[in-house]
Amino acid sequence: MVKKKSSRYVILVLIILASFVSVFPFLWMVSTSFMSEDVIFALPVRIFPNKLFKAGMWDNYKTVISKYSFGLYTWNSFVISFLAALGQIFVCPMASFAFAKMRFRGRRWIYALLLMTLMIPVQVIIIPEYYLMMKLGWINSFLPLIVPSFLSGALGTFMFISVFEAIPSAMFDAAVIDGASAYKILWRVYFPQATASVATLFIIAFMNNWNDLLRPLLYLNKARLYTVTIGLTRFQSEYTSSWALLLTASVLSILPLIIVYIFCQRYIIENQMSAGVKG
Amino acid sequence: MAQKQKYKWHSWATPWILLFPTLVGLFVFRLIPIVSSFVLSFSDWNLIRDPVFNGFQNYRELFSDPDFWKIFGNTLKITLGYVAGSMVFGLLLALLVNNKIKGMNFFRAAIYMPVITSSVAVGIVWLRILGPKYGIVDFILKKIGVTAPYWLQDTNLALWTVTFVQVWKMAGYYMILFLAGLQSINKDVLEASVVDGATPVQRLFRVTLPMLSPTTFFVFTVAIMDAFKNFELIYAMTKGGPQNATNTLVYSVYVNAFSYFRVGYAETIAWVLMAVVGGLTIVNFYVKKYWAQPLD
Amino acid sequence: MKKLFVILIIALVAFSAFATGEKEASSEQITLEWWTWDATMADTNNAIIAAYEAEHPNVKINNTIITTDGGAYATQLAIMAQQKNLPDVFTISSGNLEDWAEIGYLRDLDDLIAKDKNIFNMFYKGMFDAVKEVAKTDYYCAIPFAYVSCDLFYNKDMFDAAGLEYPNENWTWDDFLKAAKALTIDKNGDGEIDQWGYYGYGRYAEVQAWVIANNGTLINDKMRFAPDAKALEAFHFFTDLVIKYEVAPMPKDMSAMKYNNLFPNEVCAMFVDGGWQVNDFRTKIGDKFRWGVTRVPNGPSATETWTFGWPDSYVLSPTTKYPDQAWDFAKYVAGAGISADQVMGGKLSAYKAIVESPEFVDMTQQPYGDMELFREHANDKFVTTYTKSWSEWVGYGASETMGLNGAIDSILNKEATFDEAMAKAKDGINKILSRVYP
């Protein structure tokens, strides 16, 4: 914690600077969502939107939600991302606990294989994966988008291993002496220590699934299943684009992510003051 | 006091039960496609016919293509710039943001914004900022009498510009990874060091960073892997140009698979990519024991 | 209480994930699958379907629209083809016709056409034949539904201000150059050109328009890249516009704007691109200035008037269970059942009645009477350069900075000399062509 006032000011200034640098494209997107099509790319570059506070201010938003079904797409994306992330926050600590604390045959090999999946860009495996899903009959459902993420997560597992490693062994020893089972140690001692990681993993898993374009594009052909990312491609075609609507939809597609982020932040602030070593 | 005997606190089955979902997910949904993609790298396949096995022909074609070495070099350069930038800025931001200042939630969200903004939007914005003649940067530099370089159109500069934008976009991501690690550092040790009279700087280097090293290792490893996955931003900003200046291995995989429909050849490039990132990761793990706590 | 709420949310979400609720079609009905790629036409498609289903109560049409972004459309279709499960009627781009026809994924339409006595009274036979040429088949395999041509757009206000006559069908390349020079102006005297006579963005639509306007050919009959003298003359002409005569800017200087925004933003007086820009320009320009469209002028070595243009086509699945109904619907949606306002402005339908209808030349919108040009195109000789792996050697989509496009970029951006760039391009292109045409 920083005590001196002057260093607090320096920190604040740096943070404000970093925030502004990070946020200005989003501000531009919001501004563009209140412009009409012919104004967006006109020269000189307009910063102040032409429809703000005038009639038809929310036109772009209305069009995107009703005509382009963005309400439905948002719900679909939410279902997929929520379930996938939910699976992750339970499955990954389980696996990490086994890797970090237990000895068993093939441990290094399985760990290496899991790590390998993290290295692979989706473009490499998407086509064989598509054939697999086709054989399972899962095309045109949410299953290919939820099940693999629900069951395993290389990033999450890896992340929890680092966190679990940093937990002092004194805590572990104490729990063992108390006669706790492995599951109790995991869920009652280790998991609560890693709340920040749980929240972080949820944010990341949710975001990765939310922003995935390639998989939904190939697996979902029925309009009522479309996700937000597919929806965003519908504003452009081979020959035309509607930039105003595209950027408006982009703004809408980011909002749920911000909400999830802010909701999870509460768990990241809370300091692990409790669960100290007994005695 | 030392209870060094092997106290069996779990049954032999416990690790397998804990790992069961992961194993199913891994072997069914990840490894099957991965192995298939490797096998496909030895075939010629345009999707509409069946794959035709052709041995090492793809690999031979790839290594004799002069463009390949340029793409390979680009990939390594981006990796270097991206990992360095993300680690430095990610850590700095996390340290800044790990303070109880009012409204910190808002700032954390603001810094995270580029991470969740789509690459398409990020690309459009930066193209307008860095664009020659009509871009904002150009406009400002002209006022002070400096001619701006062609940030994205110069064959020597484009790659670093793209790397810069990529770091800008993802710094917030590494920030929250570091933050999670900072938050789980045991507070007792930190408080003890304050009691001992350590200055903030001493605390940072003697206590915080060493205790953070497992997380740092984790972030470093992840950053290396992410450096190879920059397809979306390149597609949004430069499409691999000009003259392959921003073409990387993953972009080339995509182009060959989804533009040219040479899926077999695309997988060949993909597995070269895997070999490189795999090699770097293995080296990383071996070096780990010199600076981070070991897994064992 | 909170726990119950959380569980409820999870249950609701999980339920949504797995509920599919498909309605069973009645046994009398047949369902046709119709796949297209243009999401901006979704409403139009639904209107067409409603009209068709009203006339044919036992037929239900399912329209699936997949974007071409990232090759998603072509990839899915290719996988379906390999699984022998193609949609009954689907859109195909000209670049894929040869490949698909060769393997047999396009249903032979000759039998359906033979049964249909009226077909070439309704549709332009010339367009059907042109598509056959692109597919390199001796049978009809595709119904063209939208022909696009590449034409010259010009800013009438700028021409007026410079006291010049508008471009017309008799223009030569010299006329073009003279006008471009007069229209390249430094308006505010700061040493930088603000208005350019022309903008060439170097993509195939513009480049090949010039080559074909000079009757040049790029691919010889051994299927290798070998631009003939006429083609080279064309290449020199439009690259000289940038590097020698400086009546057009380097593309890299204009990269802050999307290439098709220069003309609407009044940065250039003339622009060559596909007819589909009509629609886009109508939205972007509105009434800001007056503009027109005419043919790309014939080059000095041209002996005939060739038009660079190509169709998007509807094809039938070779394994369709309902060939007659699919054929009927394909004709309907390719022209028989639609009206002129459902055809995107600047595109040319293959259906005679649409092209000859008064609405085709929409006098309520720019470019007003210039739309007659597209009616004239209906009887033109369309020339294309399609081959297998076309997008690979030309450079298109994700690969648009590579291939022939990349070579031309390097010339226009003064990064390589003309000869260097063309030699490198030739090597690269022939490597690709010799792979698909051994």
Structure description:
- The complex is a heterotrimer of chains A (279), B (296) and C (438).
- Chain A has 279 residues and is mainly α.
- Chain A has helices at residues 5-32, 37-40, 59-67, 70-101, 107-119, 122-136, 143-151, 154-166, 169-177, 182-193, 195-210, 214-219, 228-233, 243-269.
- Mean pLDDT of chain A is 85; it is low at 270-279.
- Chain B has 296 residues and is an all-alpha fold.
- Chain B has one domain (58-288): MetI-like fold.
- Chain B is 70% helix and 1% strand.
- In chain B, helix 3 packs parallel to helix 7, helix 7 packs across helix 9 (200-227) and helix 9 packs antiparallel against helix 12.
- Chain B is flat and about 70 Å long.
- Residues 20-25 of chain C have low confidence and may be disordered.
- Chain C is of the alpha/beta class.
- In chain C, helix 10 (204-213) packs across helix 11 and helix 17 packs antiparallel against helix 18 (418-436).
- Chain C is globular.
- In chain C, 42% of the residues lie in helices and 14% in strands.
- The interface between A and B is large, with 107 and 100 residues.
The major beta sheet of chain B can be summarized as: 2 strands, antiparallel
CATH topology of chain B: MetI-like fold
- Please identify the top-level CATH class of chain B: Mainly Alpha
- Strand order, biggest sheet of chain B? 1-2
Estimate the global geometry of chain C from the Cα principal axes.
Answer: globular
The profile of the biggest β sheet of chain C is: 9 strands, mixed
The tally of helices of chain C reads 18
Straight-line N-to-C gap of chain B: 23 Å
Oligomer: heterotrimer
CATH fold type of the largest domain in chain C: D-Maltodextrin-Binding Protein, domain 2
Structural class determined from secondary elements of chain C: alpha/beta
Please outline what is shown here.
Chain A is mostly helical and 279 residues long.
Lay out the secondary structure.
The complex is a heterotrimer of chains A (279), B (296) and C (438).
Chain A: H1 5-32, H2 37-40, H3 59-67, H4 70-101, H5 107-119, H6 122-136, H7 143-151, H8 154-166, H9 169-177, H10 182-193, H11 195-210, H12 214-219, H13 228-233, H14 243-269
Helix pairs in contact in A: 1-14, 3-14, 4-7, 4-8, 4-11, 8-11, 11-14
Chain B: H1 14-40, E1 43-44, E2 52-53, H2 57-63, H3 66-97, H4 104-116, H5 119-130, H6 136-143, H7 158-183, H8 187-195, H9 200-227, H10 231-237, H11 249-259, H12 263-288
Helix pairs in contact in B: 3-7, 3-9, 4-7, 5-10, 7-9, 9-12, 11-12
Chain C: H1 2-18, E1 30-36, H2 42-55, E2 59-65, H3 72-82, E3 89-93, H4 94-103, H5 110-115, H6 119-122, H7 125-135, E4 143-155, H8 156-161, H9 173-182, E5 196-199, H10 204-213, H11 229-243, E6 268-274, H12 277-285, E7 291-294, E8 306-316, H13 323-336, H14 352-356, H15 372-377, E9 381-383, H16 390-394, H17 403-412, H18 418-436
